[in-house]
Amino acid sequence: MSFKSLNLSEAILHAVNKKGYTTPSPIQEKAIPLILERRDVLASAQTGTGKTAGFTLPLLQILSEGKQWKNRPIRSLVLTPTRELAAQVAESVKTYGEFLDLRSTVIYGGVNQNPQVRAIRNGVDILIATPGRLLDLNNQRLLSLAKIEILILDEADRMLDMGFLKDIKKIISLMPLNRQNLMFSATFSKQIKELANGILHNQVLVEATPENTTAELVSQKAYRIDKKRKPEFVIKLIAEGDWKQVLIFTRTKHGANRLSEKLSKNNISSSAIHGNKSQNSRTKALEGFKKGTVRVLVATDIAARGLDIPLLPHVINFDLPQVPEDYVHRIGRTGRAGVSGEAISLIAADELILLKDIEKLLGQTMRNEIVEGFEPIDKPEAIDKTPKRNNFRKHKPKGGKGSYNKGRK
Ligand code: AMP
After folding, report:
1. Share of the chain above pLDDT 70, in %
2. Does residue 308's CB lie within 6 angstroms of at least one atom of ligand 1?
3. Using CA atoms, how far apart are residues 178 and 196, in angstroms rounded to an integer?
4. Which of 121, 122, 169, 211 has the greatest number of C-beta atoms within 10 Å?
5. What per-residue confidence (pLDDT) applies to 391?
């Protein structure tokens, strides 16, 4: 299948061509025609599947064909959980819309609001936003969502994890009922289905990768190891393998900092990226990582979400995630676009219970090894004495099955 057969306009095809894409990815092939038919779509797609173009291309097409307003009210809103993802989506909108007469801007917190307000005042057709800053500007009456025709929730599962449910409901209440809704999520939990049922109207379900599966091209390996010696082992892996670009996940911000400092001290250039870092330093770390001046990026799950790092060869789970679905997100960073990748998990005795949860989710057991000299010191039986994993994702969203504004015209 070609992009041409998706009935996209010449201006959009030109931009896609310029970007070097030749064939649509599976999610693009499935979602684009449905979105162009103006259906509400619930799509299961992780970062790396081409989901951004999957909604951006048809969005641009619809808006460029629709009624053009002189003062350019915001006609489409893309909501994302993180600033990084918002910035990336905004970049895609600009790239694919280069040859169209449409304006877009991005707003998120942590930076001065004035340039964002100015851009909105000048008129934008597409607004990309994180929920907090959007509501903030709305409360100050600096923007209006009264003319929204298309709403896109990107990485909806992460927005729920980050506690944005209430904000999402509030934002939706500010929009006209008669609009098209698109929702993208890497996982389809019960909460996500409830959210979708509350927002989407007569939706079509589109799946790019089956739920709970990991990319085929990722080799997954686990090492059982002494917790205290994990940093040393990471240094050994990177040095011996002469790895040039490694993404490492830690459970906490503090852990990310500590590991990053230790790596730097051992002459492995490294940056930590997490919620306590300023936007500026996060952007700088990511740029350095992409350029190759930063060899290791140490990230927490939330900070890493939505990072656009294509063709990543190595991912290390320094700590196992508390929530098994995060494992799927994490290793989705490698083995992309037909290039194989490796995901390595370091498992201390008290993490065996988390490993079991992950294996259950994946429906497969993971090959695990003990490395001579790094043997775990605690016996596996000790796991019963460790605190139970937290269940922060297990809570039901308040408002339950409620419909936010289902009754579209
Ligand atoms: P996403 O899943 O939207 O984060 O996209 C992942 C990566 O795939 C990005 O670097 C995109 O530029 C790239 N990409 C998106 N669509 C295509 C396509 N049809 N062909 C090749 N690369 C693509």
Report:
1. 86
2. yes
3. 16
4. 169
5. 35
